[in-house]
Design a protein that fits this description.
The structure is a single chain. This protein is mainly β. The chain folds into three domains: 156 residues; 84 residues, Immunoglobulin-like, CATH 2.60.40.1120; 79 residues, Sandwich (Immunoglobulin-like). The protein contains two helices and 27 strands. The strands form six sheets. Strands 2, 3, 4, 6, 7, 8, 9, 11 and 12 form a nine-stranded mixed β-sheet that branches. A four-stranded mixed β-sheet has the order 5-1-10-13. The N and C termini lie far apart (127 Å).
């Protein structure tokens, strides 16, 4: 009976052994799968209304560190077409290649091939972007990144609009000379956050090896800085100079390769100053007022005839001085009164006529 029981156990043990081998074999096969690459296009800020570029192909040089024209292969990009680079902010990007499979080896170069439908809009007027003949075959981007089996590598092409568009001297031509920074999540991370208020242009930036990495906040105040190497940074939020808001700096922002650092929502501070003056007419109460965003801000003179309009946004105002009650004196307007940050603009001694 014992011998019979042992004989019955043998097939079961063989089955378990084979299942274990199949599981190990499956894991090894999965680990040894060919590497894959994904390529996305994003934008760094530029002072233009729109920048449209036409993408017709993405090519790579693989296991080939030569600089010649031979050896390039298309990776069959999935989203060719015309794109406004200035819309690729706040985490928005264009996926050009999605997990394209390659054998293990070295990705030496990426080439972004542009078509002829490239234009820039400046102050509402559209101009053709001319591509120098040396770059008409596509911009070559050095990568030299080792791809190992079993991994997917995400490459980011960060198109620097400001440095890529060159206005020629006397000819008036506007040339497109693409400047693109290539990063991968293996060697970089991201910083994301939000800023308020956001009804004006705001740029987020950090300095990497002496060069700025920047992005504009989108229509919701969200921003993403891509391709930031691991390290600790000071992030600067720079609002439009005419917004009336001050620059904000967030220190000690830690970036880890392959991860996203979220700094939350940063509130910008309004730049403010004050206006003061002294009314010399005796025995009358005077109202000093200015208009701020369509609303009147006012204050009364004190017993010494002094008024102080506080916390006014930086800018230029018309100050109106009006007797508070029926009076023989007439109102006075003082034009072009400039309010500067953290300063008090003193109008001096004033006599109402």
């Amino acid at each position: 009976m014992k011998a019979l029981r042992n004989l019955l156990l043998i097939p079961l043990l063989l089955l378990l052994f084979n299942c274990n081998n199949d599981s190990n074999s499956s894991s090894e096969t999965e680990l040894k799968a060919d590497p894959k690459i994904s390529i996305r296009l994003v934008d760094e800020p530029g002072e233009f209304d729109n920048v449209f570029i036409e993408i017709i192909d993405v090519r790579i040089k693989y296991n080939d560190d030569s600089d010649g024209e031979n050896g390039w292969q298309s990776i069959n990009p999935i989203n060719t077409g015309v794109y406004d680079l200035l819309e690729l902010t706040g985490g928005i990007d264009v996926l050009l290649a999605d997990e394209y499979e390659l054998p293990p080896g070295t990705l030496n170069q990426i080439r972004l091939v542009l078509g002829e439908d490239n234009t820039v809009v400046i102050d509402g007027e559209t101009f053709l972007l001319r591509t120098p003949s040396a770059q008409q075959s596509g911009l070559k981007l050095k990568v030299n990144h080792e791809l190992e089996a079993g991994y997917t590598y995400n490459f980011l092409l960060d198109f620097d609009v400001d440095r890529s568009i060159v206005i020629a001297g006397n000819s008036g031509n506007i040339n497109l000379k693409p400047v693109i920074r290539v990063t991968t999540d293996v060697t970089s991370g991201k910083i994301q956050g939000a800023v308020t208020p956001y009804d004006f242009q705001i740029m987020a930036s950090v300095i990497v090896d002496g060069e700025p990495v920047s992005a504009y906040a989108d229509d919701n105040g969200d921003f993403v800085l891509n391709g930031v190497p691991a390290g600790t940074y000071s992030l600067t939020l720079t609002p439009d100079g005419e917004s009336g808001y001050g620059e904000a700096v967030v220190d000690e922002v830690v970036v880890v390769n392959g991860e996203v650092t979220d700094i939350g929502t940063i509130e910008l501070e309004l730049l403010v100053g004050s206006i003061t003056g002294k009314i010399l007419n005796e025995g009358i109460d005077v109202v000093a007022s200015v208009m701020v965003d369509g609303n009147e801000v006012n204050t009364n003179t004190n017993e010494l005839g002094v008024f102080l309009l506080e916390n006014l946004p930086v800018g230029t105002y018309i100050v109106t001085l009006t007797p508070a009650e029926v009076s023989i004196f007439s109102p006075v307007q003082i034009n072009n009164v400039e309010v500067m940050q953290d300063l008090v603009t003193d109008l001096g001694e004033i006599t109402l006529p």
